[in-house]
Amino acid sequence: MNQPLDSIAAVLESTGNYRVLRRLEPLAACPDRPDEPTFIGLVLDVETTGTDFAADEVIELGMLRFEYGASGCIYRVLDTFNQMRQPSRPIPPEITRLTGLTDADVAGQRIDDAAVARLAADASVVIAHNASFDRQMCEPRWPVFREKNWACSCHQIPWRAEGHEGMKLGYLLTDLGFFHRGHRAVDDCHALLRLLATPLRISGQLALSALLEKTRRSTVRLWAQGSPFEAKAILKARSYRWSARRRSWYIDLDEAQIEIERTFLSEQVFGRPVPGLPADRFTARDRFSARANPEL
User: How many CA atoms lie within 13 A of 74 on its CB side?
Assistant: First the structure.
């Protein structure tokens, strides 16, 4: 934005009656040289023909390969990647309305699998804003992602506790005073990288730092196996989810919370000690993958 328009925006905002959104620009390189150990991260987003992992296909892949420090500071973008792919059947109208991608846009297009593998090879972490979706869409096509540590910027950063009412990418970006062209892969990657580089509202911790802390911890999926039917409302209110295949309620927890949750189930749900409840442990290497969700 040029200086006259910046001045107008500043005047409007100073009245307290207006809020001005600025177009998101790619994150600028940090002017400081790293004085800490650095690593390679990958922000990733896919656009697809739908949400069925078995039947739907990736039609666009965007990635930003970036350098970050142990503190969570993002120093610079190293590579930008965005390619489209023609699916085996026409793009559904609802996907075109959402993404703007048409059959003409993707006609004859293909994603360079070798380039994807090369860019992801040295990434210490792959970050997506809905990692359970992006990971399961990517792993069958690009095996390099199967052995990577994955993080979910939507569900592993405490946005609500940090003063945000929603967790969608566009909503969070608006909260920071920006807008972007959403639902195109590389544009969503740039938006996400900006979020990760920003201090959180209340704690002041860099968003990427908070995400990495959460990602490093193991999580436990505790199954309330055999819980009485009348406890359904109690379990739902505590954020348990239902697995139709295992016919059991379950909850995902940090490992430190497991004994607290077992006590809750014993006292509030079963009315007796339940020491033998099954639990599955996950790390960033398998979290969000199909391997971690075979029962669901």
Answer: 28
d(CA 221, CA 211): 19
The helix or strand, by DSSP H or E, that contains position 11, with its residue range, turns out to be helix 3-14
The mean pLDDT of 254-282, rounded to a whole number, is: 94
pLDDT in tens, 169-220: 999 999 999 998 777 899 999 999 999 999 999 999 999 999 999 999 999 9
Shortest CA distance to 236 belongs to which of 226, 220, 250, 225? Answer: 250
**What does DSSP assign to residue 183?**
T
Euclidean distance between CA atoms 220 and 38, whole angstroms = 29
Residue-wise pLDDT for 28-43, tens only, equals 999 888 999 999 999 9
- Residue ranges, CATH 3.30.420.10, the chain: 22-216
The rounded distance, in Å, linking the Cα atoms of 123 and 113 is: 16
* Strand 38-48, strand 58-69: pairing: antiparallel
Instruction: List CB contacts of 20: < 8 A, sequence separation 6 or more.
Output: 9, 12, 13, 177
| Spatial CB neighbours of 294, under 8 Å, sequence gap ≥ 6 | none
Please report which helix (H) or strand (E) contains residue 237, including its range. Answer: helix 232-237
To which CATH superfamily is domain 22-216 assigned? Ribonuclease H-like superfamily/Ribonuclease H (3.30.420.10)
